[in-house]
Design a protein that fits this description.
By secondary structure, the chain is an alpha/beta fold. The protein contains 9 helices and 6 strands.
């Protein structure tokens, strides 16, 4: 199975693509897509990379798994296609945007405008079988996405990493915190948010403050 990834990433990740685990992963993904309904669509598996070139990355948001219901996943973590009902975590993300920055709650849950501004919306696992959460975990995707995070850490400076929840916080060990900014909070899922671990974290305004501090353009977080 051959998946296209933006050439700006290929320059940094080509060694990863040649490793045995990645070839085994691609064989697994090919078999899953051939024999089961899987998400996101094959052409969108690497959307996080194809809509945010390596040189453009300013912010990294780490999710865990793609959405597994029909029509939801579009290759960007926490994002859904236009017209799709917002999942609970995304609802809470947008509520925090409202209180943090006074941004009106958006109609669309498609986070593509963030990606276009340099926000890498990276799930740890990039594919999933329909209606089976976590079904493609521990097949090699996590090895690959950990390598992506390490590469960003090593090759770039002053990236803002947004680590939401326990799973994402474990990725801190892959990041050189001396030259990058790591902002941690609870997960936006209802379970975490309702325990007081999400709302009021002001991660969006803090991200922009950190970007301005290093002479980078802030992210326009508002959406249609």
């Amino acid at each position: 199975m051959h998946l296209k990834i933006d050439t700006s990433w290929n320059n940094y990740l080509k060694a990863e693509f040649e490793k045995p685990y990645f070839k085994d992963l691609m064989a697994f993904v090919a078999s899953e897509y051939e024999n089961h309904r899987c998400f996101p669509p094959k052409s969108e598996i690497f959307n996080a990379f194809n809509h945010c070139a390596f040189d453009a990355v300013k912010v990294v948001i780490i999710g865990q798994d793609p959405y597994h219901d029909v029509g939801q996943a579009n290759g960007l973590c926490f994002s859904v296609n236009d017209g799709v009902k917002h999942p609970p975590s995304l609802v809470n993300i947008f509520k925090e945007l409202e209180t943090d920055l006074g941004i009106p709650y958006p109609k669309s849950g498609n986070l593509m405008p963030w990606a276009k501004q340099g926000v890498l919306l990276l799930n740890a696992t990039l594919t999933v079988r329909a209606h089976k959460a976590g079904s493609h975990q521990k097949q090699g995707w996590e090895t690959f996405t950990d390598a992506v995070i390490k590469t960003i850490s090593e090759e770039k400076s002053n990236i803002v990493f947004l680590l939401w929840g326990g799973f994402a916080k474990k990725k801190t060990k892959l990041i050189d915190t001396k030259k990058h900014i790591v902002l941690q909070s609870g997960h936006p899922s209802p379970l975490s948010a309702n325990r007081g671990c999400w709302f009021g974290n002001t991660c969006f305004s803090e991200t922009n403050s950190q970007l301005l501090r290093v002479d980078q353009h802030p992210i326009a977080w508002s959406l249609p």
